[in-house]
Design goal:
By secondary structure, this protein is of the alpha+beta class. It is 31% helix and 14% strand. It has a four-stranded antiparallel beta sheet with strand order 3-4-6-5, covered by helices on one side. A two-stranded antiparallel ribbon has the order 1-8. A two-stranded antiparallel ribbon has the order 2-7.
C-alpha cells in the first residue's frame, strides 16, 4: 500500500529496481495480410486442407490437415514467401537449424507440431504484418484498437531474437547506485549488475552468463 511504499522510499538504506521484461524494435514496414491470404488461396490453400495462425503480426504458422495437403502445399507456400510475396524483405522461411539455434524447435515431432506448426514463416525485425477488415475475436481487444498503421511504433516477439533491439526500461535508485546517471543496458546485463552490487565474487558465474556486469553504475 501507499504507506508501506512511502516508508520504503524514505528509508535511506532501500534500493529499488524497476525494469521491463523485454525491449522493442522500431517499425517501418507494414505488409498486409489480406492480399497475402488471397495469393495463398490461389495456390490451393483453403479451410479444408490448411489452418493458419497469424501470430500478432510477427510470424505466420501453418498446419496442414493431412500429409497429402502438406506435400502439395508446403513447397508452394515456401516458394511464395521466398520469391513472390509483396514486401519480400519482411519475410523469411527458417529451416530446422535456424529454429533450433533460436530455441523454438521441440525435439519431439508431435510436440513440435502442436506447439510450433508444420511450417512457420518469420517476419523480419522492423516489420509488422497487419490485419485488414474483420479482426479475429481472440485478438479484438489488441488488434482492433491498433489496426491503423500510425498506431504501431514498435513490436517485440520476433523469431529473430538475436537482433539488437534488446534495450528496455530499467530504473534503479538507492544507496547502491550512483545518482543522476544514465547508461545503456541490455536486459541480460541486469542480473550480473545486481550481483556486482552485492559484491558477489564468483568468476565461474560471470564467465557463464550472456550479459556483462555494469559495475560503473554502482556507488563506490
Amino acid at each position: 500500500n501507499q504507506s508501506t511504499l512511502g516508508k520504503l522510499l524514505a528509508e535511506e538504506k532501500t534500493n529499488i529496481i524497476v525494469f521491463g521484461d523485454h525491449g522493442m524494435a522500431a517499425l517501418d514496414r507494414f505488409p498486409k495480410w489480406r492480399p497475402i491470404l488471397e495469393d495463398l488461396r490461389k495456390l490451393g490453400m483453403n479451410e479444408e486442407n490448411t489452418c493458419y495462425w497469424n501470430d500478432a503480426g510477427v510470424s505466420v504458422r501453418f498446419w496442414f490437415r493431412n500429409e497429402s495437403a502438406q506435400r502439395l502445399l508446403e513447397p508452394k507456400i515456401r516458394n511464395y514467401f521466398e520469391n513472390n510475396v509483396a514486401d519480400r524483405e519482411c519475410f523469411f522461411v527458417p529451416d530446422d537449424e535456424y529454429l533450433r539455434s533460436h530455441n523454438v524447435l521441440h525435439p519431439d515431432p508431435e510436440k513440435k507440431r502442436a506447439s510450433l506448426s508444420d511450417l512457420i514463416i518469420g517476419v523480419n525485425v522492423g516489420c509488422k504484418l497487419l490485419y485488414e477488415g474483420a479482426i479475429p475475436e481472440f485478438l479484438s481487444g489488441f488488434e482492433e484498437k491498433l489496426s491503423g498503421v500510425d498506431a504501431f511504433l514498435s513490436m517485440h516477439g520476433y523469431l529473430d531474437n538475436d537482433h539488437e533491439e534488446t534495450l528496455a526500461f530499467i530504473s534503479m535508485t538507492g544507496p547502491l547506485f550512483k545518482k543522476n546517471m544514465q547508461a545503456d543496458m541490455d536486459m541480460v546485463d541486469v542480473a550480473p549488475t545486481l550481483m556486482c552490487g552485492i559484491r558477489y565474487k564468483n568468476e565461474d558465474y560471470y564467465n557463464s552468463i550472456d550479459g556483462k556486469a555494469r559495475c560503473d553504475v554502482l556507488s563506490e
